[in-house]
Amino acid sequence: MGPLGQKRGVVPFLVVGVVSFFLGSFTARFMLAPLPDLPATSLVGPEGSPFSRAAQRTAPAVVNIRSEGLYGERRTSSSLLVEPDPFFRELFGQSTDHPAESDARVSLGSGVIIDRRGYILTNNHVIRGADRIIVRLSTQEELKATVVGRDPQTDLAVIRVESDRPLPEAPLGDSDRLRVGEWALAIGNPFGLNHTVTVGVISGTGRSDPGVPGYAHFIQTDASINPGNSGGPLLNVEGEVIGINTAIVAPGHGIGFASPINLGKRIARDLIDRGRVARAWLGIGTQVLTGEAARSLQVPPGAGVLVSHVDPKGPGERSGLRPGDVITAIGERKVRSPEEVQRYVTEAAVGSTLSVVIQRQGEILTLAILVGEKPHS
User: Fold this and answer.
1) 242 & 295 share domain
2) Which of 30, 84, 149, 239 could form a disulfide with 271 if both were Cys (CB 3.0 to 4.6 A apart)?
3) 331 lies in which domain range?
4) Whole-model pTM?
């Protein structure tokens, strides 16, 4: 190759070298320059994150409950073992082979002040059988509590402490407005660790499938709930109480259950006003609307819930409800299962009026049913 060819072969390398030099200089200047100030994340303000603000709003009203009595299986001052009731043995995976012991037991749980006069909402299993109940406030002051009333069917109870000053009162939310996927915070005293806060989401609502008897329609959450959290509040991100932490499923991780606060409000009101719970009652039996039944009644499959029985002396009969009617909504809420009908009726107050929407022979009717009190069996 001649001199001219050699020069032409060198030119591309010189061009590449020059371009690489300038690119390298530009990149070095950019990388070595001081980093700009990054804006603070919108989740954290001067008062902390929404989670910390929610916890701070309600934490003063969360209490530690120590129950002492001659009942149940062994409890210790540092941890709350499983509730001896068969329902809780099943949920917590507790063996039933251990005989009950008769010496004094100590049970640790949680509660939340719902009235500044000293009324505290908690779980029935936290204080069941207790001879002595001690409540420790967020100020570390300890007060003796008395039982106002208990409701085993919902596992809720109200106790009261006497104080010479108004106590901090937790803001109560609306559990009917919950949506799956919303943030949830649990506050309580798991294993004696005071005012522990855990965060998760609402995993489900209206849960009646964990094998819970009675009127249990739980909020499911993956916010960590442990022994000692029982009776403590489940909060939304605004710091409002939306549930009372009640149980966990032992084989599963992140599966906890809380009683809806709307149910807790009604139970607490009854226990404070009457000392007992007045069960709402329509005097009807319901069943799933099958495809065959829907065709025979000329309604769309899944339109609602079939009324299978109407008590001749019940509120439903007096309001014109008949067997064969299909309940499609109660108030503004649509119904798709007998469990939902039971839940919505249970949450109503005795003496209130429920607006029940039905389909009957191709017509849509709205009945105003005066809620009665369930007769004692």
Assistant:
1) no
2) 149
3) 280-373
4) 0.72
